[in-house]
Amino acid sequence: MGTVTRLNVITSLLVGLSVTAHADVITDWNDAVLEVFFGDAVPPFSLTSPTAPGVTRRFSRLSDYVKESIDARVYDGVHYRTSGEVGAAMGRKIRAFTVQNSLKPVR
């Protein structure tokens, strides 16, 4: 499968999503690809937001980061929990496709 075709498959998957799920797809895809290399338990990391000065969130598991991302969108009122869960599941499927077809060892 050529690069353009892979991109078309991923784009087609993303276009089929409801608008409310796209952020969760991207969040979980990022987490899922990192998990392939590092596992779920990672060295602690922290995130800050320019829109919440002084607030720092700390994580030591990638899955906790994804769960909190979904929760934040629900609490903000911009997503339903189902959209987050479906988006996260789609992100994991895109991860599986990406790892299987694009992230190959360098020879």
Q: Order of strands in the sheet with the most strands?
A: 1-2
Kindly state the number of beta strands. 2
Mean pLDDT: 75
Low-pLDDT residue intervals, each spanning 5 or more residues: 15-20
Largest sheet properties: 2 strands, antiparallel
How would you describe this protein?
The protein is of the alpha+beta class. It has one domain. It has four helices and two strands; from the N terminus they run ααββαα. The protein has a two-stranded antiparallel sheet. A hairpin with a 7-residue loop joins strand 1 (about 40-50) and strand 2 (about 55-60). Helix 2 runs antiparallel to helix 3 and helix 3 runs antiparallel to helix 4 (about 80-100). The two termini are about 20 Å apart. The relative contact order is 0.22.
Q: Main traits of this protein?
A:
107 residues; alpha+beta; two-stranded antiparallel ribbon; 13% strand; globular
Question: What's this, in brief?
Answer:
By secondary structure, the chain is α+β, with helices and mostly antiparallel strands. The chain has helices spanning 3-15, 22-38, 62-75, 81-101; strands spanning 41-48, 56-61.
Secondary-structure topology with pairs:
Layout lengths: L2 H13 L6 H17 L2 E8 L7 E6 H14 L5 H21 L6
